[in-house]
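User: Round two. Same drill as before: sequence, then structure, for each protein.

Assistant: Same drill it is. First protein:
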Amino acid sequence: MAETKIFAGPRLRRIRNRLELTQTAMAAELGISPSYLNLIERNQRPLTVQLLLKLVAVYRIEPEELQGVGGGVGQLREVFADPLIAAELPGEQELVEVAEIAPNVSAAITKLYRAYKEQAGRLSDLSAILAREGHETALAGTRLPIDEMRAVFERRAFVFSRLDAAAEAFHGRLQLSSPDELPAALKAYLKSEHGIVVSPVPAHVMPDLRRRFDRHSMRLFLSERLAPPDRLQELAAEVGLLVFAEEILRELEALKLSGSEARRLARFELARYAALALIMPLAAFGEAAVRLRYDVEALAARFCVSFAQAATRLASLARPGTSTIAFFLLEVDHAGNVLRKRGADGFPQAGFGGGCVKLGVHAALTQPGQVLADPIEMPDGQRFLTVSRTVEGQPGDFGDRVRRTALLLGCELEAGQSTVYGRAVKPLPLIAAGPACRLCERRGCLARAEPPVTRPLGLDDQVAGLSAFDFQ
């Protein structure tokens, strides 16, 4: 029977150093020559089972210390999953080698990374505090292209007037009698003016894509997995990229993004905006919104779009000199990741924040499909009306879990009284919320997950407050 061989030189050297033994001393205790031990430590000879058993008996160590790399690989995997450095690692073998050969270095890298993430979070909190007090700051966490693009869209008004005007003019030339005629009209336009044929494609043919334009065959492929509203948006986005190319370029230049990748991401976002502007023209949608008292579900039915599409369009309605309500939008997932922040006047980060667990957007995830309307009061006295509802993602193969997110549409509470939701929340008590736990100084909050960075912790062992974190 062949003898099992284990190459564990670095781990054996680590144990010897921990025991403060020389190679000569350890070799004598194990009954082997120092030169043979040296070869084992350099992985030029295997650690046999017999020698492993002798190490366990003589030094009372666990066999796992010599047979595995422990949790080092998992910790390093977490570090190198960060988007900032994910592309630096060609494969996992290097992680195994680092954890195997230099476990202390592996632990130090993990500790440094976690400290970096903690400091990035604190800098973000400090930036939010300064912004709330009217001070601009360049403090931020990781500045990836996606972060730069998101920051620009969050700070500015979600209004692109050039695209609205171009989309409204184009929509007028189609001479539609009802919104449900738009898909056929766009397909006819692409075929007659650009020679592009729109073809639905089964999910198994295009499993990873929603839309693909083949320039050689002049065909636009749309996945059959898409619901009709999503298919319409992809179709309208392709039309927008062709017809509104100049307007998209001018709006893109006005954003003043620093990198080419951030510009490309912003261009995709502008194409999606153009698609919604084409599906829901500004004037017609604005009139319908006022007439329907900003009922998102009624607007979605009127324009044959989804709840998310109608809510997103509402966040772009307000214009200077008009009485249209200035809505803002927030989208989160089950894990609390913020996916989108938009606002007709910019997202109110300083006044509203959007990081409080008391907001209806989190409760909506436990009540799929139900619209929740809540009156919110912030610590500084600002009051908001919020409307929340879940959004079901694109279905996958059988057995795949459908991605579910939640949208929050908000506005000032006083302005929200003219909406269909204002009447529903009028008798309800105000929900005492905050911008985020680290920025909120409400005392006795049962939902608090972290202490505020603006107050020292209360470390009195004679007192226990209602909150998980007492502070002075």
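Second protein:
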Amino acid sequence: MTATLLRAVSAALEDELADAVELRHLLHAHPDLSGDEARTADRVVDALGGSEVYEVAATGRLIPIGGCAGPVVAVRAELDALPIIEDTGAPFAATVGAMHACGHDVHLAALVALARAVRRVGTPVPLLAVLQPREETRPSGALDLVREEAFTRLDVRAVIGAHLQPALPAGCVSATPGAVNASFDEVVLRMRGRGGHGAYPHLNRDPVLALMHALVAAHQIVAVRTDPMQSVVFTVGHLDAPGTANVIPDAATARGALRALREADRTMLHREVGRAVHAAAEVFGCQCQLEIHDGQPAVVNDERLAVATRRWLDLAGFVTDRAFRSCGSDDFAYYAAVAPSLMMFVGVGDGDTTAGLHSPRFLPPDSTVRDVARSMLAGYLAGVGGLG
């Protein structure tokens, strides 16, 4: 394969961008939450104009571009929005209490532009457009999708994804081999003691105090039991201890998350955090119930696919980052179990003024539709080249 195909598809893609941007505005203005994405899926399917459409994972869709009799390269985009009230002031802002605050509207529009361009030019290997539901919640849409008969019967040789990333500057794309997103496991810690009057702490078993010590102990496990050169994170996002200032409650609860790039660290954290929080509970005479709900594993990029994609990104004129990793999580991780996979990060940052992902003010410019589409093209061509 030569750069001829890149130039041909790139030229066709440029012709598709105006319609893709219009689609992006439509999707952004009418977001659907996880598990309720049928309207979004129908809008994208209409824009793609594919004759073959397979419903998967309830609200997901598979659209083969160029047939599906032989090997295919899959390119994935996410359908769901977040339960965030938008605060961007854009003329196409959502007004329904939900928002595309993670760039999924851009990813979908970019996939449509790429798929239509591939259909116009024709390529030796079909493209499988994967419209995936429930990326932002559980149960995972990706995990359900890869188990669907409509997907498993296809000869999928590579799966490509691209995600906007404000931590990278505009014009930069990361295609890093190895782990690039962390695993994610939800933690629920319930501490039960014996409540009473705050003036007589010696007569009580304070679950709030025990909970605070347990959380500090869990953070210390991260600090002293993991390699400081490896990324491991424990965060607490919710605390609940009903009562008033002068009343010690009977129980207190914390909810948080454990993240790790290495599966060995993930396994260790499950074990050692459990030991630490139960020890803290015992010191304060309380009972501890710890629940760790397994989420998705780390996203691990295929090395050969990453290296090959960087060559195409260079030809396309991008600055390529070769080291970026994030402790964010993504159920794209599940595709690696069925085929070599690659998650790219497409820069959208412009310094400190860029609102971050999941912010009510996150509004990447329309130019990012082009950047994501061209990045997806680079990954797709790398997948096609790997079949030669």
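Residues 183-294 form a domain with the Alpha-Beta Plaits fold (CATH 3.30.70.360).

User: Perfect.
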